[in-house]
């Protein structure tokens, strides 16, 4: 007869954690990373005009165009370095998912613990980067502030008309869902304000709920006459980021991803009533300041997006795990986005 204490196996382990986090906008919109060998990250912003080519006689010498003044932005990013402790007693305890009587050696547990903690640190940095990107997209700027970091605001130079807050009478919730076509007109107007051809719309949960109630939207979403309009008009599942439809050349997405704020409460990356119109070709990058660690620098690690390391203390006897990074988002033209609260 089998002894249940020695043969018991945990067939499944379900941690009491939120749904798997996906840094959706970072994955979708960021075109690449730019690591720097200096503490400061610098980038140029140039406003592109819409001037017509001047009409001249073919016998008149051409005049050189005046170079449009660029603005060089330079900022020292806020440094992040999540740190965790591996104490000796953790190595003697059974790990989640391990057989009840234990089947891993202390060395194997150590590697498993390290891998788990480092994964959590990387995810924490991913969340911070997603927050930075969303603040930049929503407002045209981001304020870097922390308990041990003097606040600095990065202004990417968005035009005021590309940040929209609808007045009370114009809010979608106040409109007649059967007769009004204002939501579709709003999105068309906001798309025209983008400096690239807009092809994507990101909505908060409440904005999408309101949008899909309008008859004009339902009609536009119906596939007819060979049109490519299609959508998921049913209720959303618990996915943080989901494609929900297409109208003309615009793809619609709903983003309900959240992070934990300093007070311990969940806060949405994109406002529940937020609507962001932009292009999949927007010039957005992640910049990284130099790693400021003498051991890392001695090993040749200066310009990198992440630097994981470990170190030890004798009294108390502990191993410390740490991941260092100095991220800051870069957007070359903040008017490639129009953000509205509906």
User: Which class do the helix and strand fractions yield?
Assistant: alpha+beta
> What's the average pLDDT?
79
- Work out the oligomeric state of the chains in this entry: single chain
Gyration radius, to the nearest Å?
A: 26 Å
Query: Per DSSP, what share of the residues sits in E-state strands of 2 or more residues?
Result: 25-35%
Stretches where pLDDT is under 50 for at least 5 consecutive residues are: 1-19, 61-70
Distance between the termini: 67 Å
Major sheet: 7 strands, mixed
Query: What is the element string, with H for helices and E for strands?
Result: HHEEEEHHEEEHEHHEEEEEEEHEEEE
In words, what does this structure look like?
With 342 residues, the protein is an alpha+beta fold. It is built from 8 helices and 19 strands. It has helices at 4-7, 24-29, 88-91, 106-139, 182-193, 205-211, 215-221, 294-298; strands at residues 33-35, 41-46, 70-75, 83-87, 141-146, 149-155, 163-165, 200-203, 230-231, 241-247, 250-255, 258-260, 266-268, 274-278, 284-288, 307-313, 318-324, 327-331, 337-341. The strands form 6 sheets. Strands 7-19-14-8-11-10-9 form a 7-stranded mixed sheet, with helices on both faces. Strand 10 and strand 11 form a beta hairpin. Residues 1-19 and 61-70 have low confidence and may be disordered.
């Amino acid at each position: 007869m089998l002894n249940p204490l020695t043969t018991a196996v945990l067939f499944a382990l379900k941690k009491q954690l939120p749904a798997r986090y996906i840094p959706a906008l970072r994955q979708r919109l960021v075109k690449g990373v730019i690591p720097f060998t200096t503490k400061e990250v610098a980038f140029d912003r140039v406003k592109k005009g819409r001037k017509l080519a001047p009409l001249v006689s073919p016998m008149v010498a051409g005049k050189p165009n005046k170079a449009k003044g660029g603005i060089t932005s330079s900022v020292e990013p806020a440094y992040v370095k999540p740190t965790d402790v591996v104490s000796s007693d953790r190595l003697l305890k059974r790990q989640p998912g391990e057989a009840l009587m234990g089947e891993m050696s202390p060395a194997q547990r150590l590697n498993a613990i390290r891998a788990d903690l480092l994964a959590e640190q990387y995810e924490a940095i991913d969340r911070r980067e997603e927050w930075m990107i969303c603040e930049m997209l929503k407002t045209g700027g981001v304020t870097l502030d922390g308990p041990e970091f003097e606040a600095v605001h990065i202004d990417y130079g968005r035009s005021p008309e590309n940040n929209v807050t609808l007045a009370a009478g114009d809010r979608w919730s106040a409109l007649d869902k059967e007769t009004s076509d204002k939501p579709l007109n709003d999105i068309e107007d906001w798309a025209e304000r983008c400096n690239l051809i807009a092809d994507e719309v990101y909505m908060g949960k409440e904005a999408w709920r309101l949008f899909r109630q309008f008859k004009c939207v339902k009609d536009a979403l119906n596939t007819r006459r060979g049109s490519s309009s299609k959508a998921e008009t049913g209720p959303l599942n618990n996915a943080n980021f989901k494609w929900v439809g297409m109208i003309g050349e615009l793809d619609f997405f709903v983003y309900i991803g959240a992070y934990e704020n300093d007070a311990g409460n969940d806060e949405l990356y994109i406002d529940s009533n937020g609507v962001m119109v932009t292009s999949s070709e927007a010039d957005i990058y992640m910049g990284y300041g130099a790693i400021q660690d003498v051991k890392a620098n001695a090993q040749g690690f200066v310009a990198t997006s992440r630097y994981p390391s470990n170190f030890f203390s004798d009294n108390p006897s502990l191993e410390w795990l740490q991941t260092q990074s100095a991220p800051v988002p870069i957007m070359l033209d903040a008017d490639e986005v129009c953000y509205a609260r509906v």
